[in-house]
């Protein structure tokens, strides 16, 4: 059956005691000349070896503890932004995931092509609620429900791993009505692709959204015009590409259509 559907060391205190105790001088290695030289260096440079230094005419202590505490405080200040940045990055990723999840749960009605693509994908997943959304109904009438059931069963009979949409475009448009074709492959468990083609009549309604027309909403005049336009469409490259791919599959897999038909009976 053919289906066409991302440390400072301060030594000055020890040196001061060395003038009273020579042993102390020997231990420390400091002499009077060393003290005078230290004082002279202080006058010349404005700084001493006592851990004091002039900063803008005033002196400030730069003890090892103070130096270490400043380094620690700087490191704490630097740690906080990093933590916030990491937390912010996680939040952004979560938001993106939520946005994509919400989008993937919805049906796009912006163009007739989008709603037709959504319908085919919903048939492949067997999601009846999404299928009805494509038609713009919450409860299908008998004719539409029969069509939905038949298509879900047909897709399931192939047991596809996924669906690959190839082309989707208008065959013709008349006002708010657009006749759309879609070619796609049902990727089977053995890796082969079963080519399909489907056509649907769509309508732009008062909410400026496109919906698939239910069979009962398609008039005889629409059917007649669609048949004439489809005959012309069969001469296009899109249709020819489909037929070539289909014939190739059938030659490689003789009896495949019969196997599907037996699952549907």
From TrEMBL:
Residues 20-35 have a biased composition (Basic residues). It comes from the Bacteria. Residues 1-77 are annotated as: Disordered. The chain crosses the membrane at residues 80-102. Keywords: Membrane, Transmembrane, Transmembrane helix. Residues 7-19 have a biased composition (Polar residues). This is Uncharacterized protein. It comes from Blautia intestinihominis. The lineage of its organism: Bacteria, Bacillati, Bacillota, Clostridia, Lachnospirales.
């Amino acid at each position: 059956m053919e289906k066409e559907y991302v440390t400072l060391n301060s030594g000055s205190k020890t040196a001061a005691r060395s003038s009273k105790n020579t042993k102390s001088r020997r231990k420390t290695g400091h002499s009077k000349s060393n003290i005078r030289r230290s004082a002279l260096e202080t006058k010349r440079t404005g700084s001493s070896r006592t851990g004091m230094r002039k900063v803008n005419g005033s002196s400030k202590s730069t003890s090892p503890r103070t130096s270490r505490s400043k380094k620690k405080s700087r490191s704490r200040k630097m740690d906080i932004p990093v933590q916030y940045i990491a937390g912010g990055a996680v939040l952004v990723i979560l938001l993106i995931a939520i946005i994509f999840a919400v989008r993937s749960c919805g049906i796009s009605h912006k163009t007739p092509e989008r709603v037709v693509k959504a319908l085919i994908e919903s048939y492949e997943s067997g999601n009846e609620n999404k299928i009805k959304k494509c038609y713009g109904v919450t409860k299908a009438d008998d004719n539409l429900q029969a069509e939905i059931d038949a298509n879900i069963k047909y897709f399931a009979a192939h047991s596809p791993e996924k669906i690959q949409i190839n082309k989707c475009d208008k065959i013709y448009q008349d006002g708010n009505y657009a006749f759309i074709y879609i070619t796609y492959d049902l990727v089977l468990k053995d890796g082969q692709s079963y080519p399909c083609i489907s056509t649907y009549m769509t309508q732009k309604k008062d909410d400026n959204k496109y919906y698939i027309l239910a069979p009962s909403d398609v008039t005889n005049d629409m059917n007649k015009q669609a048949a004439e336009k489809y005959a012309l469409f069969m001469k296009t490259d899109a249709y020819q590409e489909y037929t070539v791919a289909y014939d190739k599959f059938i030659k490689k897999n003789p009896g495949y259509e019969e196997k599907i038909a037996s699952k549907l009976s």
